Fold each of these.
Amino acid sequence: MKRSVQWVLTLVAATGLAAASPAAHAATPSGTSATSGKVTTAHACSEPLHPGAPVCYALVRTDLHALHDDALSPKATPSGYGPSDLQRAYNLASAAASSGGGATVAVTELADNPNLESDLATYRAQYGLPACTTANGCFRKVNGSGQQGNYPGGDTGWGTEASLDVDMVSAVCPLCHILVIEAGDLDAAQNEAVSLGAHFISNSWGTGDGSGDAGADADFNHAGVVDVASTGDGGYGVSFPATSKYVVAAGGTSLRQDSGTSRGWTESAWSGAGAGCSSWEAKPSWQTDTGCGSHRTVADVSAVADPATGVAVYDTYGQGGWFVVGGTSASSPIIASTFALAGAPSASAASVLYGHASALNDVTSGSDGSCSPSYLCTGTAGYDGPTGLGTPNGTGAFSGTGGSGQATGPITSGISSSLCVDDRSSSTTNLNPVQIWGCNGSSAQQWTVASGNTLQALGKCLDVNSSGTADGSTVDLYDCNGTGAQVWQPQSNGSLLNPNSGKCLDDPNSSTSEGTQLQIWDCNGTGAQHWNLPG
């Protein structure tokens, strides 16, 4: 929906960190300056492209010189946090290695970046990530009508934003597919993203918070879809669409390595993170803080956004190559991609987070301004405005499982504890039968209860053949692809429900014969459908 909005711009001056480079553990490319001095930044989108247009929230480090890829010293790593840093900081390394395959994360952009795919290839090659291209089906760029070509006019600021977005999706969820929608109407782009199969959408942009946004709310309301938006970079204050009750509002932190902590990292609320009360959006039922009365409070969750502890990005359209960037433009795709690792939750995304806040990293220091009550602008135990409920600590809070969402071991039969769910002959060929077999501790029987209620062995997922829904449809091993054929929801009676078919994982005729291939069948509560999961 197109709408007339009021746009407000606040410039942020980032302060430096004494001797605190975010990539201090890695080599610094020749031609870049150290981060020990004053950190200076510039908004990638310094002004709206036209009156009433949204602005992107990318903040570019200007005290560091952009460096082209061929200027990197041998074995040097670009300044700024890279994929392994972010995965370690947020306990996502295990999930990133095995989850998200086939899931699509969409990013929405107001203008074209003609170099986006080639620059993404450079970023992924630098960090050893698998290729993500149009040719292999991983990368797709479309206009607001869902077609390739006829994109909006180019803009270097939005080009920088687009590079940041696709690089952060790649960093957190290397196996995810990436859909880039370049459109003049970013509200309507939500509907286009959903129509093209995206279940996770990141919006690193915003407009002023006003009652005119109420009409656009519906564009962000899609069952089974996680829509995330940046809260802004102007400190205390809010923007749309982060204020929408249908959106997960992503705030921002300063993220630093700290070997003196058990986590190895510390975080504080970033001074530029948007936070506070919407002037018009009613408070959702899952949000119970009192500081905003009956209105929506921002943020819900957060990730790194401080440019002084920023992320590495590669862009040759808006920048000169490698550079460091921050802003809540970084936190939005990080959060959307964490949801993709976890799988789409059965309930609304934000309500799942609020029900599992203990599985997040609580951020208890830092501030983005002055306010009353103080928690709306100050990091504190529990919920606060700048960082919401906290930052990712694995995928548990995002899938609704709590904890890290990961446990590995054998799945034993309810008929006999000596029988295990087994990948026949330890084969990783797609459609390889999954059977019962005597428990032997082999890798063919090591199943990970992973994010999104998937069961994974040897890097692949337990799968209903051809997404079957009929009694007797066989079960096999297949590339993880985020479809309903690979979702197995544990039930209180020990059964594993496949919601796509409405049926349960079943041992045909309660067989105890080794080599019997498993199937799905009407749920009946018998021992043939009782499975003991690891952990």
Amino acid sequence: MKQRFGILIIGLLLIGCKSKTSTQNEIQEIQERQQEKVNHLKVFAKAYGYVKYFHPSDEASKIDWNSFAAYGANEILKSNNTNEVIATLNNLFKPIAPSVVFSNTKQDYDMSTITPNIVNDYKPTYWQHLGVSKDMNMQGEAYSSVRVNRYTEVDESNGFGNLSVSINAEKYKGKEIKYSGWIKLKEGSKGTGHLWMRIDKSDNTLGFFENMDANPIKSNEWKQYEIIGKIDDLASGIYFGSFIKGKGTMFLDDVRLHYKENNEWVEIPIKNNDFEAQTLGKRNEQSAWTGNSVGYSYTFSTTEIKEGKQSAVIAYEGKIKRVEGTALFDSHPKFGELIEREIGDGIFCQIPLNLYANNETTYPKSTSLNTLNKSISAMDDSGNNIFLYLGNVINTYNVFQHFYPYFNEVEVDWDKELTAALQRSFNDQTDYEHLVTLQKFTAPLKDGHIYVSGPNIKEYVPAINWEWIEGKLIITRVKDESLGIKVGDEVTKVNNQSSENYFKEVNSKISAGTKGWLNYRAQVASLSGEKDEKLVLEINGKNIVLNRDNKYDYGEIDIAIQENDYKLLDENIYYLNLSAIEMDTITALLPQLEKAKGIICDLRGYPNGNHAFISHLLREKDTSKAWMRIPKIIYPDQEKIVGFENSGWELQPKKPYLGNKKVVFIIDGSAISYAESYMSFIEGYHLATILGQPTAGTNGNINPFSLLGDFTISWTGMKVVKHDGSQLHGVGVLPDIYVSKSIEGVKSGKDEFLEKAIEVILE
């Protein structure tokens, strides 16, 4: 199963290179053969999505669709012509969709194959999607997928089983800390193992955090793993433990904690660090190991041990609940409706959208599902696998093809992008290369919520920040004075190529609706690499070599203009940092805000749950009730969408009313999602002067899904428009007054956005 088609192609390129002519002919032949294979995979991809999301058979609900994508890609690549592809499709899908037909001609569908002799004993079943929740990671949130009149098994487990402990941080403030433990997974486990450590701070902010998501444990042999971090001076508690993510069983033993003193590691005693005592503490009991994740058991093993007589065991058991599929809305496909498409050159499909079902099964019933499931289970899906990569691309294609709500707003040839992603997958040799393929595949969708994560993410950065200002790449922060770099320096080359070309590659992997969000994301992505990987900058004609030795702290580049959540400026002007201030603090400030000359609200970032402040700017109640729209889908390829579930916030005015004074909101490209919901009220109801740069142009609840090999993709699952119904996606909330950073402003440490906001208040 570890064979690689990409390697085969490279090998063929090296054969028969006896003359220039023969080499060119050979290359052309190989290219044609690879394109033929890609075309076959595209046929499978279309059939896969149609059956997965729209064919309501019981058997189709009992398949692991992630693994089936990889298995099907493997099988389809064995086909050498159209007839073989058709035969393979029928062999693949008959066990899970016995009424589906693939053929080489258009033909009438035999309705008797889906009609039982006595229909009175049956009910119709069909798929309804409100957005999509099938095989998504956030079940029970904004989105739903229902197979009407059939029971669905819903796993209500937490998704990870965690065993943890905590100690007081007082003695170790400001010191380096190391947490280690021995871990192995049971053979056959699908999940991944993790150590984790978190430093909580007395100001309720998060200090150091690591959970090995970038480098999860997959080995079924005992190995020692460790996490090293820094304990903040404001640290209040050290929390650490281990968890298994997903399904499987994990063994944990010989856990140790050390802090560094005089360049030596000194051990911190941990109660029951070898798990020799057969007890676990109560929930949140400090200094005692606690395990309480729903759907997981916590026991001890006397056979799988690293040290002593026993080890701790975390095992997935699941918490399965059977849920009856009740209709989400009135519209549904009628009995006899089919997906009839030419899904490839001379390859036709007929897929029923509505089936009869009784208490036992859907009609007709398959007899070969167990055989297929055994074949899929025997497949190697552990990662670094060409068929896994192809399956992930096929799976990803279908999520967006059938449910991405912004194809009308975004100019993208999605089928063309599928072709390119499949072609790249043939050459992917590592998980990181596959990560890049998925990033480049989804980047043209221009969805700022798209994040592709996976194993071995490169997350270390050098001790600088930079940003494009006045068309030049400018250093905006230096965290190590010994580097010989100053704020305001221009970087003309990166790794011996122009800064523009370097960022061109970085930007090709980022999905962004607006230039502002693209630049914001690129600030970190352009600096990120492997630990201690070098980055060579040309500044003032000289090369400076930087070391990527700092693990990126999420949110580090987010702007916090003031150290405080709010500040009283000159002339009785109040500044509110909406990315930091809590609503309770704003409420306490209302008497002062009511007397203020003006209010500056900084939303260069993400609101801290304080959108109730909008009510104090409203003179009349909010009547905009349809700016969030979840599509109602019953047909594939987003054809004939039957409507939307509309909603809004329906805010009410509150006293004191603050809209009678000068209010300025500062925005830029880092304001996304919730921030744009916030700003859409300000823009839509003309509640303040808006100043800065356009927001990110991406709003709506995210809807992440997981792929084989521990890859995950988040994306936007609903359509959000402005309050007047106009387009928000890819546009953003636009400022009334545009302000840009200047190089001189950066050098002098000015906040030119805030300065302009004060000027507007004083006009």
